[in-house]
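Before any further analysis, backbone shapes were mapped to integers, which produced the following:

***
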Amino acid sequence: MPKHTSKICKRFKVDNGVQSLPWPSQSPDCNPIENVLALMKLKINKQPLTSMKNFMARIRKEWKNLPVDFAAKLVNSMEHRI
């Protein structure tokens, strides 16, 4: 599959009226998942991990405990990140 900056993709976007947002290349600070991973890491590492089973259980627990509106807040903050 061609990348979004290839000639064929650029032509497709022009031909089909697709508008793209300007986006800095290689910008992990603009990727909302980085915030999720950082928060999960903080929560998971609050207590020592004793086994892989314990680690996986903690990941599941913390994932389920993320606030429902957390993802929406991250997405809405994108405007201020770029």
